[in-house]
Amino acid sequence: MWAIGVVALCVMAGSALAALVRLVPLSLRAARVALRQIFGAMRWVSRHRRFGAGSVVVAVVVWMATKHGVGALAVGAAISAALLATWRLRAPETFSAWVTERIAGSWRSARVYRPAWETAMVTTGLDAGINGERRLPALVGVRSRAGVDRVRVRMLAGQVLEDWTGRAPRLAQTFGVPECRVRTVPGRSRDLELWLLVADMLLAEVSPFRSRTSDAAALAVAVQEDGRRYRLRLLGSHVLVVGATGSGKGSVLWAIVAGLAPAIRDRTARVWALDPKGGMELAAGRPLFDRFVYGDPDDGGDYEIEFARALEDAVSIMRRRQARLRGITRLHSPTEEEPLIVVLIDELANLTAYITDREAKRRIGAALSLLLSQGRAVGVSVVGAVQDPRKEVVTVRDLFPTRIALRLSEADQVALVLGAGARDRGARCDRIAESMPGTGYVGIEGVAEPLRVRFPHFTDQHIDALVAEYGTSADMTAAETRSAA
Ligand SMILES: Nc1ncnc2c1ncn2[C@@H]1O[C@H](COP(=O)(O)OP(=O)(O)OP(=O)(O)O)[C@@H](O)[C@H]1O
Ligand SMILES: [Mg+2]
Question: Above 90 in pLDDT, residue 269?
């Protein structure tokens, strides 16, 4: 009996142990499966943040409706709508970047890019097979604005920008858009942004912008392909505008003057206009300029020396400012007493190459070189327009940090203006249609690829309106300008 009891006890203990042994791995496995599911769900939510955010909103709405009733819900909706409307009104750019572009981008992503992503990557050869597993570059997100879908992609390890630029036409064809540009993303070496142009926003002429204030560090002067304003950094820089005849260089000069107009009225910026084509381009804006020098080659006399004198006066101002600011600051900030001086020159070549007076040519060359090499730190900037970018014509070409290239007559000229490789990175200035004056490519700080933009068209009426609103009555003589500066 005792023995039977011991055996029974042993059998029970054994079966309990066996059950425990079976149970532990089971529970471990279950825990592992559960953890994997939780991590999977978390990863899914992190990849579909919008869905996660949407779920939170729905949960809050349901909770409010059940807890406080539909009335509270209506009040909450009205407050949210008012906040959004205020945001849109007060800061349209950030509202667009955070709300409209993302909503439109999600829609385009779901309809166009995600469904065709795998096909596009495989047919263009941008995928990779590793250990029999197919890897695709990740589609990080899409933002849509105006006529452009900006598709952010994460390249596979080992891929470079050129792998994508070479496939841009095929990507455009796959996604059914006329053009695809590949752009780097500052600070993100593994990411690229594909700009898929659904429609060309620059086909239509651009109207001049109106701005109440003027920021010389970010002058809104043109429209980008994504409908945003292109902001030119004039403060602390010099700008060279190059374009064949009729390419719209005049509109670039006027866009800069218009951008500066509020500062001209406030006297924190002064424009010295040098128009060696006999005043053809800039004469209409005379009341906006502190100094206006023009010349007519048929006139004879010493008109060419006048250009040299103006430039030398700018050098004198530069020297005086250098002496005062030495050791105090490295970048001058414009004030009414010490304004930004912008020396605006239409057709630089008339001063550097085609000039006949040798003495004037020497003095102009010397003064221009000094201004371009030392003026920007003390608030003296030069903006020059020229048709021919060759060094023999514009000896000082390389001293302009900012370049704008409009339509050019030859493909080789692109490198002279925007640097070697700029054409391969998309700046096809020689392909700009003659029917689209004011269109060109500009450099953007921190981004390797030039950006296509269009400058507004300034008619005589626009210039008259600008003069009427911002022109200062003082049409100063050279002597007055010198003493004021
Ligand atoms: N941004 C623009 N949008 C639409 N049309 C423009 C624009 N800019 C200029 N145009 C038109 O193109 C024509 C040529 O422009 P503009 O005189 O500015 O060219 P340019 O490059 O200065 O030529 P040139 O070297 O011969 O002086 C102008 O008559 C004007 O009507
Ligand atoms: Mg012109």
Answer: yes
